Every structure is written in C-alpha cells, then in structure tokens.
Amino acid sequence: MSVLVHENFGSNWEDSWDGKIHNSYVSENSLQLMFKRNSHYGCALYKDVTPSRHVKVSYRVKLLPSWKSDSTGKTLGFADLRWKDSKGRSFGHGNRRPSPDGFSFRTWFGKTSGLTVPIGMYVYHLGQKPRWGDSIKVGSVKVGGPEVLFECEADFDEGFIRARIDGGDWVRHNIVVTDKTAVTRAWLDAYYGGPAVAKKNMAWSVRDYKLENLGPDPLAEGIDWDAISRMVAAKEEADKQTEESEKAVEKSLSIADQLRELADKVELLEG
Questions:
Q1: Are 128 and 99 in contact (CB under 8 A)?
Q2: Cα–Cα distance between 222 and 257 in angstroms, integer?
Q3: Given its phi and psi angles, is residue 125 left (phi above 0), alpha (psi -120 to 50 degrees) or beta?
Q4: Structural domain boundaries of the chain?
Q5: pTM of this structure
Q6: What is the pLDDT of residue 95?
Q7: In angstroms, rounded to a whole number, what is the distance separating the alpha carbons of residues 161 and 120?
Q8: Are the C-beta atoms of 51 and 223 separated by less than 8 Å?
Q9: Cα of 201 vs its chain's centroid, Å
C-alpha cells in the first residue's frame, strides 16, 4: 500500500502536472473547477503514476452557490489510457470504447434539481453497455452546502468499482478488465457535457486529492508479476468453465423436463 499522488494545491503545485488547467484556478488551497459560459472544458490535468490494479481516490468537494447544471458532466478521477487509435486518441474515454484495453473513472454529475445535484461514477471498461460509458449514481450534494468527502475504490483483480459520500454506504458496480489493465494516470478533469455546454459560469471547489495504491507495491522486490498474471488468467478460465458447466446443467435439466412431459403425454394417450 502506498500513496501515488497527494495534491494539496499549494505553491507551484501545477508544475508537477501535465495538460491544461483551462478555466480553473486555485483559491485558499482548493482547486476551483470553473465551467465558463458556452464552454465544455474546466480542467484537463493529469499525472502519470506507477501502474496499480487496486486503487482508491478521495477528495473533498463542495458546489459553489453559482452552480446550476442543466446537463451531465465529469470531474476528478483516474485512468488507464495507454491504448490509442491511429490518430493518437486514447481508447477508454471520449466515446471510444476500450480496444483492446483501457479504462477510466471520473466523478459524474447530473442535472441540478432544486438545490441538489446527483453525483456518482462514470466508467469506461470492457463490459460497458452504452458506447459512452456507464453512469452510476452514488448520492447527492447540496448547492452552496458544506463540503463532502467523495471516495472511489477500484479493484481490477476482483472486478469491481465502488464509491461513497461522507463515509456512507458503498455503491458498487461490476467492471470487466484484462490482466494488463492498470491505473496509470491521476486525473484532474472537468468536462461539461455530452454535447451540451455550460449556460452560465459555475464551479466545483475541490481539495485534498489523494490517489492511493491499495495493493502490493508494483516496484517492490520479490513480487512475481508473471505468476500473478497467470493466476488471474487461471481464475478467469475457471470462472468461465464454471459458467459453462452451469449452463450445461441447466440445459440437461431442461431436456429432462421435456422428456418427462412427453412421457406423461404418452401415458395419458395410452390410458
């Protein structure tokens, strides 16, 4: 277990990140994720991290009184965007399904209703149903209210991602990845839409962003990663065989039921 990134937005914090900060800015050690009128982009900063298969991100967030979303959008998260198309665009976000691999999680937000905004998980993975990723509501945040703690954990070996707000109940979602998928990027993202753009200036305030590796240190000596990959592959094959066996049993039971029903009909006719 180790801390991959812990960002407190102090002096010169931006120097250690790549990408563009766009309209966002820092005030009192908090990053103001600013969506300006008629704009999609609030922030697009990232930092490469040691590849990790079991991670947790946490940060504190509050919605400033100016907030009033009339569409969905995405903010902070983590990702594996190493697989790219012929134009250099990463698979696993931006309406590009993982191919042959890739993964991304960002915090999802929905439309403002009264003074509350739903938030949750926005996930690209190999098992996603819609083209644009799975959206899973976790809870709600009050506009102009106190800050809350948002946490999200992903375990690629166990095949799940889950999140919670202020230490409440975890909301879990199953994901499909390969034995090569790993979180390689910390992501300070802020994107308004879908196709919609912000109709007014509005902002989230976030602080104390922390990305942790909850599994073994990938750089530690004595870890046989080839053996772990073989173990994961063996587990997936065993799960597949179990599923096939269960289907075969169900099919045989179905055939047996049909034969019994046919025998009953024959007996009835003979009678």
A1: no
A2: 55
A3: beta
A4: 2-213, 224-271
A5: 0.80
A6: 87
A7: 11
A8: no
A9: 26
Cα(212)–Cα(200) distance, rounded to whole angstroms?
Answer: 35
Note the pLDDT tens digit of each residue in 47-102.
Answer: 999 999 999 999 999 999 999 999 999 999 999 999 999 999 999 998 899 999 99
Give the DSSP per-residue string, 41-90: EEEEEEEEEEEESEEEEEEEEEE-TT---SS-EEEEEEEE---B-TTSPB
Q: Are 30 and 8 in contact (CB under 8 A)?
A: no
Residues 163 and 145 sit within 8 Å (Cβ to Cβ): no
Name the average pLDDT for the chain: 89
For residues 107, 112, 117 and 118, what is the CA-based torsion angle, rounded to 10 degrees?
-60
User: Over the range 136-148, which residues count as b (16 or more CB within 10 Å of their CB) and which as e?
Assistant: bebbbbebeeebb
Cα three-residue angle 204-208-212, rounded to 5 degrees:
120
Beta bridge partners of 20: 44
Q: Which two tokens stand for residue 134?
A: 């799975």
**What's the fold here for domain 2-213?**
Jelly Rolls (2.60.120)
Whole-angstrom CA distances from 74 to 56, 102, 145, 258, 265 are 18, 18, 20, 52, 61
- In the block, which residue shows the tokens 């889950």? 162
Largest distance between two CA atoms of the chain: 93
Chain centroid offset of residue 250 CA: 34
Distance (Å, whole) CA 133 – CA 115: 27
Whether the Cβ atoms of residue 148 and residue 166 lie closer than 8 Å to each other: yes
